[in-house]
Each structure stands twice: as structure tokens, then as C-alpha cells.
Amino acid sequence: METINYIIVSSESSIDWIGRKVTGAHNGTIGIKNGNFIFSDGKIKGGNVVIDTTSIKILDISDAAANAQFAGHLASDDFFSIEKFPTASFEILNVKELLNGNFYLEGNLTIKDITHPAGFEVSLQNQANTAALSGKLVIDRTLYDIKFRSGNFFKDLGDTLIYNDFELDFTINAEAVFSGQSQN
Predict the structure, then answer these.
(1) Cα(47)–Cα(32) distance, rounded to whole angstroms?
(2) Lipid/polyisoprenoid-binding YceI-like domain location, by residue (predicted)?
(3) Is the confidence at residue 156, as pLDDT, over 60?
(4) Which domains does the chain have, with CATH numbers?
(5) Pairing between strand 162-177 and 130-140?
(6) What is the 3-state secondary structure (H, E, C) of the chain?
(7) All residues at 6 or more sequence positions from 155 whose CB lies less than 8 Å from its CB, including other chains
(8) Alpha-carbon span 92 to 44, nearest angstrom
(9) pLDDT at position 43, please?
(10) Which residue has the higher pLDDT, 88 or 146?
């Protein structure tokens, strides 16, 4: 059984986020700092992804001042507390093979130093020395002490309510690392 380590190529990977509220939605991007995937006989078996929370960008607000204000709010303790927690991570603990190159990943998601189990489906394209995983992870922000304008914690928010779930749509590219020998 051949085991190969694939290192994430941050510059060739992307995460798009969407957060919804009663009156609409906001969207943007967030970068991947580093990570890896472990493959055994061409199938994903484990790994981790480290997200750079300091890289969060807002794409739907074109006014520079409003964009900067919103970015500052996302960086604050109301949301991601990026000075204290500049990264978030997902560690793969279990993988279930589905059909047609799809897998269900289960693991630990850590945001703001708070860890909860998470699971989601990914599509895998594995060719020669490269691998690409894509999928969507839906996160309940309140599990990670991100309660700002959540209906679970605040009453009478009306149209200022922000929904608890936010989405991360991702495509992560990785390249195989060989040390001159098969890794076992």
C-alpha cells in the first residue's frame, strides 16, 4: 500500500465565503495558509487545512470606506478575533468513499480556538502528482462564539438579524511530495 503526502499549493487554491442576513448576503474570499492531504492507493485518507483568517476579503462592497469598516468588523471579537486567532483549521479524522470520485470527510473544525466535529462531501480529482478537492462546508458560526446579531442569542433583531450558517465553497490544489522512496 503506497502512501503519498500531498502539500497544499496555497496560491492555486481558493475559498469563497457567503454570509446571509435577512436583507441579503455578503460574500468574499479567504486564503489557505498551508496544509496537506495523505493519500493511500490513490484515495484520500487524512490531512489538514490551515485557513489564514487575516486574509479575509469582502467582494460585494465596492465603496472603499464601507469595505474597510466591514473588514474591520469581521476581524473584531464580534466575529473572528483575528489578532488573537490568525488561523482556523480542519483536521481530517475519517474518510468515507462515496461514488464517482466523491468522499465524505469528517474531522475537527477549529475556529477561535474552539473545536467541533464537522463533515462534508468533497469531489476529488487525482492525476499523476496533483490532487484537487472541491466542495462546500456549511458552518454554524454560533458554535465558535460568533454570536453577533444571531437570533439564538438576541431578541427583536428584525431585519438586522444575521443567519447563523455561513458557507465556504472551496477548491484546494495539492502536489505530491516524494522523498525518493515510497512513503509508508
Answers:
(1) 14
(2) 5-175
(3) no
(4) 3-177 (2.40.128.110)
(5) antiparallel
(6) CCEEEEEECHHHCEEEEEEEECCEEEEEEEEEEEEEEEEECCEEEEEEEEEEEEEEEECCCCCHHHHHHHHHHHHCCCCCCCCCCCEEEEEEEEEEECCCCEEEEEEEEEECCEEEEEEEEEEEEEECCEEEEEEEEEEEHHHHCCCCCCCCCCCCCHHHCEEEEEEEEEEEEEEEECCCCCEC
(7) none
(8) 10
(9) 85
(10) 88
Nearest one of 117, 136, 133, 114 to 125, comparing CA atoms: 133
pLDDT tens digits for range 169-182: 999 999 999 765 34
Chain segment 28-78, per-residue pLDDT in tens: 999 999 999 999 887 899 999 999 999 999 999 899 998 998 888 778 877
Around Cβ 127, how many Cβ atoms within 10 Å?
A: 7
Contact 15, 24 (CB under 8 A): no
Contact 17, 168 (CB under 8 A): yes
pTM over 0.85: yes
| 121 CA to centre of own chain | 13
